[in-house]
Amino acid sequence: MAGLAVVHLARKQNGIAPFERFIASWQSHSPGVSHDLVILFKGFHGECPEHNALLADIPHRRLFISDRGLDLNAYFDAARQLDHSRFCFLNSYSRILADGWLEKMNRWGEASDVGLVGATGSCQSIAGGYTREERHLKSLPPATQFLRRIGRALRDRRPNANAQRAFRVVLRMAGVWRPARDFPPFPNPHVRTNAFMASRDTLRRVRLGPLRMKLSAYKFESGKDSLTNQVRRLGLRVLVVGRDGMGYEPERWHQSNTFWQSREENLLVADNQTEHYLESDAATRAELAQYAWGDNARPD
Description:
- The chain folds into 2 domains: about 1-125 and about 185-295, Alpha-Beta Complex (Spore Coat Polysaccharide Biosynthesis Protein SpsA, Chain A); about 135-175, no CATH class.
- The N and C termini lie far apart (about 45 Å).
- The protein contains 13 helices and 12 strands.
- Helices cover about 40% and strands about 20% of the residues.
- The protein has helices at about 15-30, 50-55, 70-80, 100-110, 130-140, 140-155, 160-175, 180, 200-205, 215-220, 225-235, 270-280, 280-295; strands spanning about 1-10, 35-40, 60-65, 85-90, 95, 115-120, 120, 190, 195-200, 235-240, 245-250, 270.
- It is an alpha/beta fold.
């Protein structure tokens, strides 16, 4: 059985720009440990000349899958097809930030008592109601609440953010979206699945369940039966690893300065969410830090 595989998801729908950024970061930062690079082409049918040009001088293996399902489906499909003992999965928007990034994650990931390692984690709960801002908001008259939420939505510059909010309103009205039922209250520590590492044995013991829409992915990442919670129920540790090489236990994730905290100066692998935080104004950064860490937030 082969050793470590880095599996990067290249989705046709995202265009070439995210892949260009990933490859540039890959070439700029030494991983620090032997591994196989696997490019998971999602939604392609063999035609990817722009990707071919970027990969011309990079040893790698390719897997092609349909664009049906979500990123997590693709990761678990890849793990079933590949003959490796351990996997590091990177999503389409991943961007490596430091030399030795893979060795630092692998150093902890290969420990017998560690089941899951991530570049970032959060204590956020989709069930909500845990930040000072939310508590204050709920004390206001309904009309004021509505206006405040509209203002918050207009400040959110993430792609499709408002469309996702509208979709969740529809699901809530249909009885499908019930956060208090499906998600633990804050604090809800979970490894984010933009960049994470786990062994083949651990992945085989995790129940993925059907992932037919984004709600299912939210549940698998941060719900009551999340990847993190399932791994912890196996009696294994779950860690966030920073640029400093330290493995942070969940109760210390807010001190790692990797996600929506300080200036994320200890982050190993960036993504669109970490970049959204850094590019936001001070008020938005404070709000995001509160979502992730509650009273432990330190946005500056």
